[in-house]
């Protein structure tokens, strides 16, 4: 019980902090700059990312039931991948934005126009949704041996792959390609900036 109260308290602090950040940036006209535009989306992603698994975790802690249906698992995994990948790509965009602001300050308004920032952010969200769709759809076509209940409260790719009766090598390659392309793109851009 103490653990669930502590977990709930940490979650509420996360929600209030990120929601407060979004609210402050939206209400203060002086903060309507590109840096705060990216910061607003980072707060939104952090808020969403923590909300993917927290409700099920709290339910598991309070009821001692550590199981989830396949549909719930795939839904949780889908949004976990979306927001995890989106955070990586958004940090990549923020690094590029800071690089341009520091290294080319006179060209910053021309290079980092609001239209370009909106396009880059939209592209990163689209990439994340496509990436997550590819992973989840490729995993959902696998055949599973046992019941449709998974004895976990948090779903990731590895537990699902271990429950499959069919060959998972192609799906593992697909997951590896999607994850590594996202991570390498982020790592190269952040390191370059």
TrEMBL record:
GO cellular component: membrane
Pfam families on file: 7tm_1 (PF00001)
One Gene Ontology term of the molecular function aspect: G protein-coupled receptor activity
Subcellular location: Membrane
Keywords: G-protein coupled receptor, Membrane, Olfaction, Receptor, Sensory transduction, Transducer, Transmembrane, Transmembrane helix
Chief subcellular location: membrane
G-protein coupled receptors family 1 profile domain segment(s): 17-193
Membrane topology reported for the UniProt record: Multi-pass membrane protein
Top-rank taxon: Eukaryota
Transmembrane segments: 6-27, 34-54, 74-96
Alphabetical list of PANTHER family matching this protein: OLFACTORY RECEPTOR
The protein, known as: Olfactory receptor 8H3
Organism: Heterocephalus glaber (Naked mole rat)
Lineage: Eukaryota, Metazoa, Chordata, Craniata, Vertebrata
